[in-house]
Amino acid sequence: MAIDKTYPEIRDAVARLCARFPGEYWRKLDHDRSYPTEFVQALTEAGYLSVLIPEEYGGSGLPLSSACAVLEEIQHSGGNGGACHAQMYTMGTLLRHGSDEQKKHYLPQIASGALRLQAFGVTEPTSGTDTSRIRTTAVRDGDDYVVNGQKVWISRTEHSDLMILLVRTTPREESVKHTDGMSVLLVDMREALGNGLTIKPIDTLMNHATTELFFDDLRVPVKNLIGAEGAGFKCILDGMNAERILIAAECIGDARWFTEKSAQYACEREVFGRPIGQNQGIQFPIARAHIQTEAAALMVQQAADLYDAGKPAGAEANMAKLLASEASWAAADQCIQTHGGYGFAVEYDVERKFRETRLYQVAPVSTNLILSFIATRELGMPRSF
């Protein structure tokens, strides 16, 4: 039996909603490389994408652990929360560092679905995981910032009205610390597109609606600065920690889907006159995947609890993401192995979910960078780079 799950009522309701969007729905989207507009709209109308927004702004005012329950259940139901999870983890930046005016203006519209905040612009082609070396700049010009540069692997930009964008407002070499001098801007994509912003879709292994962005003298009002100028890295960290915890929860949902799928098939599929799950060579790896998943789930819950309590959660967020992504990948690999050739058949959904969950070994933060963080920050060892 799995550990007691948080927010059972939310989970049940999300599962019922997801039942309206079965495997056939996701397979067609995957085939066409289309965005799940109807699914995201249904989640928005049901209020699940605004669970983190305070009640005074039209949301539910629930903690991050509630959003974890929503996203985990989407994955557990065979769907893909990657289409909408950014609207949750961007709240870590906007809620904690946005001004009262910004929150009053944007949050009610985001909660109602009138505005979509699904884009989080950080990664660049030249800097990779070294965020301190981003080259996208924002130079103050009167009441505007003028933005120039490039971002890559920025998902859902074609399906978002707003984007949280990390830029350099002070050159790295002129900053006291290498993480100083960066700022966060809230970009109105509707105004920006064609007026300094160009979006180029990237075709990828899975249907993730990801893009490359080019900024050429894009003007962003100074009033759209989130937090203090030059302190953007600290602002973005709250969003990044939330992102890692939420994606870890998604991985737990994936892992449970894979393991349940494996166990069911192992019980039903007969070879040599008996269920293949009767063979220890089949059942033991499935059992191990289940154990790995439930252990990772505990780490995800601990990270969410710390984040919700306003306590430092960087190490726990990173460990949760690593453990959960490894659990989902192990479960995915075993699911393919259990199904044999049928695991590669599109109609079983295994190969689609297999491709989707592989992403989280790499993004939003690579496994090696997590290990480096734990080794240096938690264990006191010298940096290797």
Helix count, DSSP H or I runs of 4 or more residues = 13
Amount of beta strand: 15-25%
- Summarize the helix and strand pattern as letters: HHHHHHHEEEEEHEEEHEEHHHH
Look at the structure and give the CATH class of the largest domain.
Mainly Alpha
Gap between N and C termini, in Å?
43 Å
According to CATH, the homologous superfamily of the largest domain is Butyryl-CoA Dehydrogenase, subunit A, domain 3
Unreliable spans: none
Largest sheet: 4 strands, mixed
Radius of gyration: 21 Å
Q: Which strand order spans the largest sheet, edge to edge or round the barrel?
A: 1-4-5-8
What is the topological layout?
Elements (H helix, E strand, L loop, with lengths): L7 H11 L4 H10 L4 H10 L17 H13 L9 H4 L1 H7 L2 H13 L4 E5 L15 E5 L2 E12 L6 E7 L13 E7 H4 L4 E5 L8 E12 L3 E2 L5 H37 L1 E2 L2 E2 L4 H29 L5 H26 L10 H9 L8 H12 L7
Parallel strand pairs: 1-4
Antiparallel strand pairs: 2-3, 3-7, 4-5, 5-8, 6-7, 9-10
Helix pairs in contact: 1-4, 4-9, 6-9, 9-10, 9-11, 10-11, 11-12, 11-13
Verbal overview:
It contains 13 helices and ten strands. The chain is α+β, with helices and mostly antiparallel strands. The chain has three domains: 105 residues, Butyryl-Coa Dehydrogenase, subunit A, domain 1, CATH 1.10.540; 115 residues, Butyryl-CoA Dehydrogenase, subunit A, domain 2, CATH 2.40.110; 145 residues, Up-down Bundle (Butyryl-CoA Dehydrogenase, subunit A, domain 3), CATH 1.20.140.10. Strand 6 and strand 7 form a beta hairpin. Helix 11 packs antiparallel against helix 12.
